[in-house]
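User: What would this chain look like folded?
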Amino acid sequence: MARTLPDARDQFVKAIARDTHAVEQPRLVAVLDALIAWSNKHPTLLKFREEEDTPGTIAFERVGSKMIVWAASPRRQDVPRLELVPKALKTISAENREKLVTMLNAHMREPLLPDEKLRIGFSALKNAAALAAVQTAVEQLIATG
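Assistant: Here's the prediction, encoded as structure tokens.
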């Protein structure tokens, strides 16, 4: 059965409520809502992935393909994280991957290694500049991909 975006969002929020301090929850949910709103503003590029198997995970894929562009997942005993192109990483050129790693590392306390998954914690994305940089990178990724 296909999920709806509101149902997936509710599952995500419930999942982070288990392990996140009550004061921090609204800020992390605001990051998720900003990512969803931004993705929904690009209906010709991105669409909600209804077939996601991991409970609580929200993913958007490129329209016209099954390539997941971004996925947000709650983490047990940690903040949620955003992963860029989680299952299609090999479709990114080495140059674009290097640019993405550099951009993500500019907004993280613990930098990614060159061969790590392209991910960033929601704590970093509470910063408007970090969130905007990720959104710009996703746009460029879609345009080149």
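DSSP finds five helices and five strands in the chain. If you want, I can go into more detail on any region.
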